[in-house]
Amino acid sequence: MKVALRRIKDVLWTLALLALVVVVLRLTKGLGATTALSDKIPWGFWKVLNMVAGVALATGGFVMAFAGHVLGIRSLKPLIRPAILLAFLGYGSSCFALLMDIGLPFRFYNPFFHWNEHSFLFEVFWCVTLYFTVTVLELAPIALEESKLGRVKRFLGKISGPVVILGITFSCLHHSSLGSLFLVSPTRLDPLWYSPFLPLHFFLSAVGAGLMMVILLTLLVARLYRRQAPVELLGKVAAAAGIVLSIYFASKVLDLALRGAAGDLLSGRWEARLFLVEMLLSVILPVGLVLVPRMRRTSRGLAVMGLLAVTGLVLNRLDVGVFGYFRSAGTIYVPTLPELSLTLGIPAAAGLVFFFFVERFRIFDLPEKVEEEEIETVPATACTAFQSQTGVWTGVFLDNLERWSLILVIVVPVALGIFSPRASARGPASTPVSPPRGADEARAKLKIDGNRNGRLVLFDHEAHKKREGGEEGCGKCHHLDVPGDRWTACYLCHRDMDRPRSIFDHGLHEKRIAARLGLRGTLAENHTCTECHPPDLVRARENTKRCVACHEKDMRMPERTEGRPDLALSYRDALHERCVRCHEKQDPKAHPGLTECAACHSGSGSASSPGK
Amino acid sequence: MKAILTDVTHCVGCNRCVEACALDNHLVERGSEARYSREELSGRRYCTVLHTPEDRFLRRQCLHCLEPACASACLVGALHRLPEGQVVYDSDKCIGCRYCMLACPYQIPKYEWDTTHPYIRKCDLCHDREGGPACVEACPHDALLYGEREDLLREARKRIRSNPGRYLPRIWGEHEGGGTAVLFISDVSLEEYWPTTKLEKRSIPDLTAPYVVSTPFLAVGVAGFLTVTSWIIHRRNRLAAEAAERGDEGGAS
Q1: Tell me, what CATH number does A342's domain have?
Q2: Phi, psi at residue B222, to the nearest 5°?
Q3: Which residues of chain B are within 8 Å of residue A32 when distances are taken between CB atoms?
Q4: Which pLDDT score is estimated for A610?
Q5: Of the candidates A129, A130, A597, B225, which lies 20 to 30 Å from B29 by C-alpha distance?
Q6: What SS3 class is residue A217?
């Protein structure tokens, strides 16, 4: 186990050193450069996972203080000191995470001087700082146990009663207030999680999972330092946690039923699935395991239910604080590597401090009974046994030089590789642009709605181009100095539509109509003419059957023009649909002018040329 | 109480208000293309014009709630409401917790993510500018009116009454989320942009106030309960121990 402990410490050191790099980066470059936070998702892992969930997992401290000191349950004594240490570390790391997360860390003291009693965060801030002080005061007697500061120790002993009661009070307040934090988002937080009972949910789940965390830590220490875990006692704690979690579950179910959100669970939304997974991890599975007496009696069973409950709690806090906001924000948030690194690094550093305390002070004083059983393998006092493991701490730096170099070899390249500042400005992605329709020789004949009356006519772009003087002549129709609505319609040039046009093949029409109607004989005999030219009326354009009467389908502008290479858009639609839509999709900063209506429709007469 | 009435049917989306706002608040340099960019609100843009799917132009800016959620959330009171109704920001108090950004139902407060020492940024209704907000002054189509909220509500009702075909019979911002100083009248529904509609005229501080008020009572209650419980149990334990001692003595003698 000595090797396992050493390896664990190496990993923790690596994570903590990486986090240290992130701290430097965050303080010098700012939040935007190191995190994936945005205006849409302003709260991320540091605040929600490290602070909110971290504090929740440290509830063991006040619950054990309540059970041990207020209710006077003697049998819990061996767990009180670990729980106090856990509370100290949990709150310490939460405070540090919060310090890193706020935008102006050097102003962390402002809430002491500027008060807004209406803010839940104000309450959380005060309770967390005060409770952190309480944990320091509770931990101090343990740390000073072997020192000679008699007066300080006597003072600490004297105030311990009120300190414990204050600590429990602060805890009750801020654990529910952490839930109240999210009460401000009735319109933004997903209805599965938003509830008027959020404070109650947060309090109950924190107490349940906090007890599980104490169990996990005790098991971990027992395993790493080859101690006999007080399984029977832990089983009782697990049962208590199970009861609290069951009440939590009942309140959740009741809450969903009361709000009528229960039906939403089966909607198949990803939030609903996440909610079910969360309930499974945080309550259903752990409580199910607690109910099995055999699981409560083995270290493995306890470890499994503890891990499930703790994971479930972290997931719950992330759901309420981060994931539940995705839908209303219309975007998601994926933490950056530096962000994740600090998220892991803070608990890693807390873990190192934990080992330091465990090895230096009498934290885990296992029950006499257990030690008697284990007397052959374990030395009588816990303290000395722990101290033999303190390689890293007692200054044997040079002895472990190769380990340190290994850690550095890992940390430095990883830090350089993943923490290089985010590329600040990405240029627009290049998109292949197809040539304008009609300029393409292969598709020279287009149908255009040239008069903007919803009727299509065949249009030979190439012929027009040649007639109007090639490239020089584009401006005759496509004049960029005229605002969009004043395009050159066909009729502006073609005012003589009654004259035969090459585009209309009269002979072909005669033959086709005759064939369709089954008329035979010469033109004069078969009366094909009357199909289009009414016999009793003057032969004029107005009296002639209109093309659209037969070519209804061909000449109506279809709803969708995509995938129809024979259709051309009008000049206006081309500008609106093609240029503007495409540029809106691409980085609008590249050519801001093009996407703006006011760029052309400025109202002052002439359209300003689109910006580059 | 100062307010802005926005007539959506008048707005043609020319973005002059955006330009005026950016220039007046020194967010861009003169002659830049700020006016043409269709950006969302950000740390450098306090108002913007959305092009809605119904082909209307909808101005986005701080609505200056009568009971602002951001101000109730701000733990140092950096965001607060002036007597004249403007919700303003005192950057000297801010610690950068971004709770206001989480609290605002309209997602208005924005952050200067690109700086090392960022601040919250949002419209302050030009509260220290002579002649009212720059955006209202710049509007060429009379889509924006600035004045007392009561007068503007009267004006809005008059417009809706005299032209029922043109407007929906509703003033957005009159009651939503407890009411806002920036009001909208429109011919298409703006429901989507007013998530506070579902709060049924209550403001977010209204929702949270009962919890805040109950906190001191909870604190006193918990502390009292703990003290009493602790005293009773310790006394009982002491008595039991004494009794046991006496019992032992009795047995011994």
Answers
A1: 1.20.1630.10
A2: -65, -50
A3: 111-115, 118
A4: 36
A5: A597
A6: helix
Per-residue pLDDT band for A587 (boundaries 50, 70, 90) equals low
In a domain, A158, yes or no: yes
- Say if residue A290 is in the same domain as residue A157: yes
Does residue A422 sit within a domain?
Answer: no
Pairing between β-strand B144-148 and β-strand B120-121 as defined by DSSP bridges: unpaired
Contact A29 B72 (CB under 8 A): no
Q: Which residues contact A581 (CB under 8 A, 6 or more apart)?
A: none
Cβ atoms of A504 and A546 within 8 Å: the answer is no
Sign of the torsion angle spanned by Cα atoms B187, B190, B191, B194: negative
Q: Which residues of A touch B212 (CB under 8 A)?
A: 117-118, 120, 123
Among A172, A592, A596, the residue with its CB nearest the CB of B222 is A172
Task: Looking at the structure, tell me whether residues A328 and A455 fall in a common domain.
Answer: no
Task: Please check whether residues A16 and A150 belong to one and the same domain.
Answer: yes
The least confident of A125-134, A415-424, B153-162 is A415-424
Asked if residue A235 and residue A102 are part of one domain, the reply reads yes
Q: What pairs with residue A460 in β-bridges?
A: A445
Give A325→chain B minimum CA distance, Å. Answer: 9
> A405 lies in a domain?
no
pLDDT at residue A538 is higher than 50: yes
How far apart are alpha carbons A570 and A447 in whole angstroms?
10
- CA dist B214 to A491, B138, B225, Å? 77, 47, 16
- Please answer yes or no on whether A70 and B118 come within 8 Å at the CB atom: no
Single out the residue in A337, A368, A399 at which a domain terminates: A368
| B120, β-bridge pairs | B111
B127 and B86 Cβ atoms separated by less than 8 Å: yes
Give a yes or no: residue A610 inside a domain: no
Q: Is B233 in contact with A30 (Cβ distance < 8 A)?
A: no
Q: Check CB contact under 8 Å for A601 and B208.
A: no
The domain tally of chain A equals 2
Residue A29's pLDDT is 86
Nearest CB partner across the interface for A43, out of B76, B98, B222:
B98
Q: How far is A138 from chain B (nearest CA, A)?
A: 17
Most confident of A355-364, B23-32, B174-183, B194-203: B174-183
* Residue of A114, A165, A596 lying closest to B226 (CB–CB): A165
Q: Which of A71, A109, A112, A119 to mutate to test the interface with B (most CBs of B within 10 A)?
A: A119
The mean-pLDDT minimum among A180-189, A298-307, B48-57, B222-231 falls in: B48-57
Exposed/middle/buried for residue A189 (C-beta within 10 Å: 0-12, 13-18, 19+): buried
Residues A75 and A172 in one domain: yes
User: Does one domain contain both A230 and A103?
Assistant: yes
Q: Do A598 and B13 touch (CB under 8 A)?
A: yes
For residue A68, the model assigns a pLDDT of 87
Lowest mean pLDDT among A451-455, A514-518, B70-74, B86-90: A451-455
Is the model's pLDDT at B35 over the cut of 60? no
Residues A443 and A348 in one domain: no
**Chain A CB contacts of B98 below 8 Å:** 37, 42-43, 103
Q: Closest chain B residue to A179 measured between Cα atoms?
A: B211
Is residue A350 located within the same domain as residue A449? no
Contacts of B38 in chain A (CB under 8 A): 584, 588, 592, 595-596
Residue A609 has pLDDT above 90, yes or no: no
pLDDT of residue A503: 60
Domain boundary among A338, A368, A398: A368
